[in-house]
Design goal:
Strand order of the largest sheet: 5-4-1-2-3-20-19-18
Largest sheet: 8 strands, mixed
Strand content: 5-15%
Structural class: alpha/beta
Number of helices: 18
Distance between the termini: 33 Å
Mean pLDDT: 90
Number of strands: 20
């Protein structure tokens, strides 16, 4: 691997994460690194990752220590843990109204700019919920390392959790390595490629890629498919009817085949031998040199692998915990909980197809058309209350209250839904919001989402559309599936809902708990607060300018970004 792939930088909270939490510490003699910190950080440095610290230090605002004291503490930390590429400090207290105090995302944005990258290519490691909220609101990834003061609700809501700092670093490096074909050699070697990598852009080389599932599943597989396309001459995608519209939005796909797979479809018909025979003949007609079969963590690729063998495909790659016998040439395994886009990217890498150099790890779709005129121009908020899986939708009465609250606060609200959700969207929109229920196919919905200031939605397809177009998401997330695996990918997000609810981890399509408590307990004011956290003002309200202030390097404040103190090295030296 030439340099980092998934992440360019890792941003650490200071107290409780890198060093023992000593409240309002201005004494370098009281600095105690957490166990294993130096060796863990050196592993990240050796992997080419840049390291920064993002820390709230309200003791400055309260006069409990001086900037000179803080610099001395940071110098001592660097003596013990090695040099950091930047220190980003919020010197404010909760009541100061700054843009940098976590859980606000200002420090993460400032750190990314200082390190020459973007938040979506950063990962934040911290010990409390504020750290994870700031990370997600900036579009960064997050790993929570709990301490005795971390609340159980914070642990349940975190996208990823590690037992300690060394374990967090191991997790980060494993995720980085998983999308690097060099990690998987000699498996990552398509036929005839003596270099051990994919034959990049070989004319006439046809690769069949497969994701037979819903629209959202196809969308999150997009980065993996795009990685294959970057190294193939022609890409043919096999998908199911529920994913066809999403498949048509993916770039770099040359042909789409639609067919139900009875071992994948949630409401399958009995297996028809004649139909399976026809599918096998259709696959043979593709003339694929190889196939890469993408699946979710609870699905099996082996039935299709058998049909592909019968169709004459000579190289098949897939994720499989079950013994595949002679069905797979590349048998890949992925730990539970890995984000779905990373899961797809890692399979592509195992087959010999690395992500394209232009940040091929992001969700991307074909350019969206302009939104319909009913939306009233950019800046509106999309509220999508429904879901194909009832357990992951927003209760109608809550959606009604959210719409009224947002409109009362000055937001223009556009309510969206499918043809079978017209009654729901009409009820939610009432007379105060725009009702587009049943009036948009997926491509038209993509246009509406792409033009929005934010999307308020459960864990369903439009959340992934928003991620693909960079539209911030207020995620009303039902914990039936893991947030770290299925949450919006690399887009500014605020997660709402009870992550500890009894439905947690059930994968239920219908709510197994009366009253839908994981989502129904959300206060509409929380949605309004989430939009503020994401920096989404009411439509027509100017977005405040971010002031960037630079002062002489000789003093503590090398620069000020959005109000945060930015220092170089240990406290400004």
């Amino acid at each position: 691997m030439v340099g980092p792939v998934l992440f360019d930088a890792v941003l650490f909270d200071r107290d409780g994460t890198l060093v023992e939490d000593v409240p309002y510490n201005g004494d370098p003699g009281r600095v105690r690194p957490v166990p294993g910190a130096r060796a863990a950080l050196d592993r990240l440095r050796a992997a080419g990752l840049r390291l920064a610290v993002v820390t709230n230090q309200s003791g400055l605002a309260r006069g409990l220590f001086t900037e000179s004291d803080m610099r001395a503490v940071h110098d001592r930390i660097e003596q013990l843990l090695g040099r950091f590429d930047a220190w980003l400090v919020c010197p404010h207290d909760d009541g100061d109204g700054c843009a940098c105090r976590k859980p606000l995302p200002g420090l993460v944005h400032a750190a990314a700019r200082t390190l020459g990258t973007v938040p979506t290519r950063c990962l934040v490691v911290g010990d409390i919920g504020r750290d994870m909220t700031a990370a997600l609101a900036a579009g960064a990834s997050g790993v929570l390392v709990p301490t005795p003061v971390t609340r159980a609700t914070e642990i349940a809501a975190a996208p990823h959790v590690a037992a300690d700092l060394p374990a967090a670093v191991t997790q980060i490096l494993r995720r980085q390595a998983a999308v690097d074909p060099a990690t998987h050699l000699p498996a990552a070697r398509p036929p005839g490629d003596g270099r051990g990598g994919a034959s990049r852009g070989v004319p006439g080389r046809t690769v069949l890629v497969v994701r037979s599932d819903s629209a959202g599943d196809v969308l999150v597989t997009g980065p993996g498919i795009r990685a294959v396309a970057a190294g193939a001459g022609r890409v043919v995608l096999l998908c199911g009817p529920r994913g066809r519209a999403a498949a048509e939005l993916l770039p770099d796909v040359d042909e789409i085949i639609t067919h139900r797979l009875p071992w994948i479809d949630p409401a399958p018909d009995p297996v028809d031998p004649a139909e399976m025979g026809a599918l096998t003949e259709r696959l043979a007609a593709v003339g694929a040199d190889e196939a890469v079969v993408f699946t979710s963590y609870h699905q099996s690729a082996l039935p299709l692998a058998l049909l592909l063998r019968l169709a004459g495909v000579t190289r098949v790659a897939a994720i499989s915990d079950d013994y595949p016998g002679a069905l797979l040439d590349v048998r890949h395994r992925v730990p539970v909980g890995v984000p779905e886009p990373e899961r797809a990217l890692s399979l592509a890498a195992a087959a010999g197809y690395p992500p394209p150099a232009d940040d091929g790890t992001a969700l991307r779709l074909r350019p969206a058309a302009p939104p319909p005129p009913e939306t009233g121009g950019p800046g509106y908020v999309v509220l999508h209350p429904g879901s194909a899986a009832e357990a992951r939708g927003c209760p109608p009465e809550l959606a009604e209250r959210i719409a009224r609250t947002l409109v009362a606060a000055g937001h223009r609200v556009v309510v969206t839904g499918g043809p079978d959700e017209r009654e729901l969207t009409g009820r939610v929109a009432g007379s105060h919001a725009v009702d587009l229920g049943g009036r948009t196919g997926l491509a038209e919905l993509a246009a509406v989402v792409a033009g929005a200031g934010a999307v308020v939605v459960g864990n369903t397809g439009p959340a992934h559309l928003a991620a693909a177009y960079g539209t911030p998401v207020v995620s009303l997330f039902a914990p039936t599936v893991p947030f770290g695996q299925w949450g919006p990918w690399r887009v500014p997000t605020v997660r709402l809902g009870d992550a500890t609810a009894a439905c947690r981890g059930t994968r239920a399509a219908r709510c197994p708990v009366p009253g839908h408590p994981c989502v129904s307990g959300i206060d509409p004011e929380e949605v309004l607060d989430a939009l503020r956290l994401l920096g989404v003002p009411p439509a027509g309200t100017p977005t405040p300018a971010v002031v960037v202030r630079s002062v002489a390097p000789a003093v503590a404040r090398v620069g000020s970004v959005g109000g945060a103190t930015v220092t170089s090295g240990g406290g400004g030296r």
